[in-house]
Amino acid sequence: MTQIAILTVSDRASRGDYEDLGGPAVESWLRAVITSPCDYVRHIVPDGLESVRDALIELCDRDGADLVLTTGGTGPAPRDLTPEAMEQVRHKALPGFGELMRRTSLMQVPTAILSRQTAGIRGRSLIVNLPGKPSSLPCLIASSSSARDGSSYLPSLTSPAGASRCSSPRDLDRLRP
C-alpha cells in the first residue's frame, strides 16, 4: 500500500501555539482525489535545519514513505530552512516542481516570488516542499498534474473539481531503483 507522509514545519504549531491548518488541508485534499488505498501519516516539527532534515530521513528511510509532502518553512524568514534541509537529504533534485508551484502561486499571491518550494527524490521517496498555508493547495494540484502529464512520478492526482482521480498510486514504483 502506498505510504504518504505530510510533514508540517512550524515553530508555533509544534509548540501548540496555534492549530496546524496546512497539514490537515493537504491530507483532506489527497483523500478527496486518491481513490486507491493509501496510508497517511502526519507529523509536526519545529522550523530549523536539523529538525526538518532528521524528520525527512526518518520518513523516507525508516518509515518507507513513497511520497512526503512538507508544508511550511519555505519562506525567507531566518528559521525557514526546509529547502536547506531538503538539499541535505535529497539524492536527486527536481527543480521544475518549484518553478511550477511558484508560477501557480503568483497568480493568487504577489509575495509567492519569495517562496522557495522545491522537490526531490531520496531513495524510493518523492519529497515535495509546499508553502505552509492551506491556500497553497493550488501548488500541489499544479505539481501533481504536471507529474501525471509528464513522468507520472506522483500518483495521478488531479483537482477534485477537475477530471480523473487516482486509480493507482503504484506509479511511484517508477522511482524505485
Describe the structure concisely for a colleague.
With about 180 residues, the protein is an alpha/beta fold. The protein has six helices and six strands; from the N terminus they run βααβαβαβαββα.
What does this structure look like?
With 177 residues, the chain is α/β, with parallel strands linked by helices. Helices cover 36% and strands 19% of the residues. The protein has six helices and six strands. It has helices at residues 11-15, 22-33, 49-62, 82-89, 95-106, 137-149; strands spanning 2-9, 38-45, 67-71, 92-93, 119-122, 125-130. Strands 2-1-3-6-5-4 form a six-stranded mixed sheet, with helices on both faces. α3 (49-62) crosses α4 (82-89) and α5 (95-106) packs across α6. The relative contact order is 0.19. The model is unreliable at 148-177 (pLDDT under 50).
Tally of contiguous helical segments: 6
CATH class, anyone? Alpha Beta
- Biggest beta sheet attributes: 6 strands, mixed
CATH superfamily: MoaB/Mog-like domain
Strand content: 15-25%
User: Share of helix among residues?
Assistant: 25-40%
How many distinct folded domains? 1
Backbone CA Rg: 15 Å
Helix-strand string = EHHEHEHEHEEH
The CATH topology name reads Molybdenum Cofactor Biosythetic Enzyme, Chain A
Structural class, please? Answer: alpha/beta
Overall mean pLDDT stands at: 81
Calculate the terminal CA-CA distance, rounded to whole Å.
Answer: 18 Å
CATH architecture grouping: 3-Layer(aba) Sandwich
Unreliable spans are 148-177
Shape assignment: globular
Give the strand tally.
Answer: 6
Strand line-up of the largest beta sheet = 2-1-3-6-5-4
